[in-house]
Design a protein that fits this description.
16 helices, nucleotidyltransferase, DNA replication, alpha/beta
């Protein structure tokens, strides 16, 4: 007999002969919440009826919620009593029992079933007030707001804090960072082009991104992680011309100096990396997959979990590996093209008058609206600037409809759509909302500037994306009503725009590196004071868009903005940040192939920047909208690659040198 049948047989007489859907749902929720059987729950109900009075207690939706609260209160009192006993016994010892931030859940075993708020000290007046056995009213009820019944799941009132109106923003158009300011800023051409001035080419195998998600196998995961170490081992051996005998197992006790290649990890599964907790994880081929603690002493290092390093040293004691040298990973070459290929691309930038004009590119990253509305005012302002300047390329990185946006998470769009929106609430989908709020403005933009090329890079936080893992596949254009000038690419993507190679990933790797990075300078030397440039160089050195492993857990990330009337307390669903959502079996899709990109775009919540790092133009455009106000975007103006007579005569491939001929401004929207 199912739980539903058992509950109906036991509780139907108390409910007047049959259970309503509300009562049945609440009873099922209590069974799951407290892990009870139907018979045990009925025994507790009979005790509750006797306590409250048989004649006055009828099983309806209001009573069953009060019954659930009574059970939760009893469980909380019991847990607090146990916590008090544990605390008293621990006081006899020197070290006190660790507590989990106050409250009755001493060891975190109740898993959200009791409140984490410490019990307040009850005054005499409060005790007298407690003699009133009526259900206490919440503060929201006293202030005239609608209150839920007596239940631990209390709606969160809407946060009234409003950000600055977008039209009232200050310092709009201010340039906060720039490089190559000697190059003229972008401006509208005197004579608009008659055709697109760029040619796009993906440098990745796009069909491979359509893999089946949520199908990871442990064996495949371990092989992928192992192969990455072996790949770097072969790379180090070839670059430094080392014999096989130079490599060894760093976990094996030996007085001989060896070279070891492995992955940086923390010695505790959930610990934070620091100088004392750094271990090297070896591959099965070189070290049987063992881990060994690293000691650097006076050797400088710049580490994070997941980084592949090559170290030279000894393990005399058998307990730790003493590093005497950290061997730099050989850099990838910069991209190059033949003079003939460059001439073809330069011809696209040459107007009817024979003069070559710079290529205009705008780069922006979501969110594109604040947490208080869905006006997308910042996106409209960006598109207006792209239209006025007749920009050649517009790069838009997600999220667009952000899963962490409180309105999107609530699913209640009715009050936030334009007044003229023709959507049927009962039939509308997220695709319809996207067509209205995003595709519509893009359609109007390409009608005004038909030669513009728009590149959309999805994000894991996009509510319209059906691909829930990273690396992330494209989303379909047709259901979203996007114009033909829009090219939806994968996340990440290596994309050729004429001769230039752009590397773009909406996964916030810089924030992950900032939280987990641990570094030390060598004696007599100093690490770069530019933290953002140093973090970016780590990405470049590792030849991967997201070299961090493991990433931050969702519980450790900042929680999304609260939803109005969101339920909290025991049994309520806790909203968490989306997180990295890595599919390790397909991480090879995020590796760089053969060459480094000319332009590396890594959107992040960290301060926006533009920097030249190791011959690459590295850009964090920031977010176009912050939670409560406007953000930033990046504007690029790229001159054609000038060729000397010697380069033309030689006919050999020449470097693109984009960092010398691209002006980049980070601008307030």
């Amino acid at each position: 007999m199912s739980d539903s049948d058992k509950l109906a047989d036991l509780f139907a007489p108390s409910a007047g002969g049959s259970l309503s859907d509300d009562v049945a749902n609440e009873l099922h929720h209590i069974l799951r919440l407290l892990d009870l059987s139907a018979q045990e729950l009925f025994f507790k109900w009979e005790s509750y009826v006797i306590k409250m009075g048989v004649e006055n207690t009828k099983l309806d939706s209001k009573t069953v919620r009060a019954f659930k609260k009574d059970l939760q209160d009893a469980l909380e009192r019991e847990s607090r009593a146990k916590g008090h006993v544990v605390h008293q016994s621990a006081a006899k010892r020197i070290a006190a029992t660790p507590r989990r931030g106050g409250g009755g859940d001493v060891f975190g075993m109740l898993d959200g079933m009791v409140s984490a708020t410490p019990a307040p000290r009850i005054s005499a007046a409060a005790k007298r007030k407690a003699n009133n056995f009526d259900t206490p009213a919440a503060k929201s009820a006293k202030s005239g707001l609608n209150s839920s019944p007596a239940d631990s799941k209390t709606p969160i009132p809407a946060v009234e804090t409003q950000g600055v109106a977008f039209e009232s923003r200050q310092n709009a158009g201010e340039v906060v960072q720039q490089i190559n300011d000697h190059i003229p800023a972008a401006s509208a051409p005197a004579e608009p082009p008659t055709e697109a001035r760029v040619k796009l080419k993906a440098n990745l195998e796009l069909p491979k991104f359509g893999y089946k998600t949520m199908a990871m196998k442990l064996s495949e995961t371990s092989e992928i992680l192992d192969d990455r170490i072996d790949t770097f081992t072969d790379l180090i051996q070839a670059h430094y011309q080392l014999p096989d005998s130079a490599f060894g197992n760093p976990a094996a006790q030996s007085t001989a100096e060896v070279v070891a290649v492995g992955r940086i990890a923390c010695d505790q599964p959930n610990g934070k990396l620091n100088a004392a907790s750094v271990v090297l994880e070896t591959s099965r081929r070189m070290g049987a997959g063992l881990r060994v603690q690293l000691k650097f002493d006076s050797v400088g290092y710049d580490l994070f979990p997941g980084k592949i390093v090559a170290v030279r040293g000894t393990n005399v004691s058998g307990e730790y590996f003493v590093v005497t040298e950290v061997m730099p990973i050989p850099p990838m070459p910069l991209p190059a093209s033949t003079p003939a290929e460059l001439e073809v691309h330069n011809d696209r930038l040459t107007g009817p008058d024979g003069e070559a004009t710079p290529l205009g590119i705008l780069v922006a990253s979501g969110p594109y609206t604040t947490d208080t509305d869905l006006s997308f005012a910042a996106l409209h302002a960006l598109l207006a600037q792209a239209s006025d300047q007749r920009t050649d390329v517009l790069i838009l990185a997600g999220p667009f409809l952000d899963l962490e946006h409180p309105v999107v998470a609530s699913g209640d769009f009715h009050d936030h759509l334009p007044s003229g929106a023709k959507l049927e609430p009962d039939r509308a989908t997220l695709n319809d909302v996207f067509r209205l709020l995003v595709s519509g403005p893009l359609q109007r933009l390409v009608q005004a500037v038909p030669t513009m090329t728009i590149i959309i890079v999805p994000s894991l936080r996009d509510a319209i994306s059906k691909h829930v893992a990273w690396p992330q596949d494209r989303f379909a254009k047709a259901p979203l009503g996007l114009p033909k000038q829009v090219q939806v690419v994968t996340n990440p993507i290596l994309l050729s725009v004429n001769e230039m190679i752009f590397g773009i990933s909406t996964q916030d790797v810089l924030s992950e590196l900032r939280r987990e990075n641990v570094h030390q300078s060598s004696k007599g030397q100093a690490l770069s004071d530019d933290t953002l440039a140093r973090l970016t160089s780590n990405v470049i050195e590792q030849r991967h868009f997201f070299p961090v492993f493991p990433p931050q857990s969702r519980e450790e990330l900042g929680k999304p903005a609260a939803i109005s009337s969101e339920m909290t307390g025991a049994g309520a669903e806790q909203r968490l940040a989306v997180g990295a959502s890595l599919d390790i079996a397909y991480l090879k899709l995020a590796e760089w192939i053969n060459v480094r990109p000319d332009v590396l775009i890594l959107p992040s919540v960290l301060n926006p920047f533009v920097k030249i790092v190791e011959g690459m133009t590295c850009i964090n455009p920031g977010t176009l909208c912050k939670k409560r106000g406007p953000g930033h975007f990046a504007a690029m103006n790229v001159l054609p690659r000038a060729l000397s007579d010697e380069e033309r005569d030689a006919g050999e491939a020449v470097a693109h040198n984009v960092f010398e001929r691209a002006r980049v401004d980070v601008v307030r929207i």
